[in-house]
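Forum > Structural Biology > Help requests

Title: Can anyone predict the 3D structure of FAD synthase?

Hi all, first post here. I have the sequence for FAD synthase but no way to get a structure on my laptop. I'd be grateful if someone could post the structure tokens.
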Amino acid sequence: MERPVSVQHNQRLQQRLVSFSTIHSKSPAQMPIRSCCSSQLEDDRELPAEGLSSVAGGIVALGKFDALHIGHRELASQASKVGAPYLLSFVGMAEVFGWEPRAPIVAKCDRKRVLSSWSPYCGNVTPEEFQIEFSSVRHLTPQQFVEKLSKELRVCGVVAGENYRFGYKASGNASELVRLCEEYGMHAYIIKSVMDKNQDSRNIEGKDYKERGQVSSTRVRHALAIGDMKYVSELLGRQHRLVLTVNDFEELTSTSNKCKVSAPKSCLLNLPPIEGCYKNCFLIFGDESPVSCRVFIDTTHIHLEMDEVGICNFDNSQGFQFLGIEFGVLES
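Reply #1:
Sure, ran it for you. Structure tokens for FAD synthase below:
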């Protein structure tokens, strides 16, 4: 639902932008950021509220945001220092480029929870997501893309990483983003990449040409592929939560002191770690307190073992459709 932007809101936002204008860009050229989008704010006042996009007057962080890792969190944090923070990303890239489908790192139904956990880093504001169909922008030049942000979406500014590429065939870089945003009266803030502290000790396959040792979704996927859940947590800034649909549980047994649940991998809504046994995990269901469990993953199924026998009594009538598993470490 679109949210109207009032004149008072824009006035407060402009004041915040002016106070932020002394902060310098961390772009490769160390270019100071000067514009405070006052001309665009004046234009917004002339538009009827229903004519504004849902991100009008906001600050958008640019990226793919698959993993919602600590690098993405930093982008949202910087955006929140200037105005209402949004994550702007594209959907449908796999279909356009013919990529093989792959499970997301964060389940779609779990993204709002993750973004809510970023609130303390974002001035107690929860960032919101705004997605654009990639097919509608894939042929835009860098200038046309920035023009879309300014004239169609009417955002007040952007935040991006120093390695951000945009426009047709990724022809635009961070420096060009700064220049074009100034040309269109928007604020731009380029931040340094959040680096992976373990980059020297991890063997990341160098298939991603943008890989420069920064925290990335590629690194998160690699860490999950080797079952290093401590490393995954460091990259995400939280424990990895795997989400399962309750309807697909096919085996549930209980003994005098243990409860065991099994389900096919087809019930998983996001990417699990490699096959193996994981201890110190927690089962999350509804508003109930987390339950300690062990998780065993094989080639076809995921198995949960809990010491709390009562947990085996849950069913769909309890009002929840999903279970979450937060991972500990892989047992040797």
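The chain is about 25% helix and 20% strand. The chain has three domains: 7-191, 199-236, 241-330.
Shout if anything looks off.
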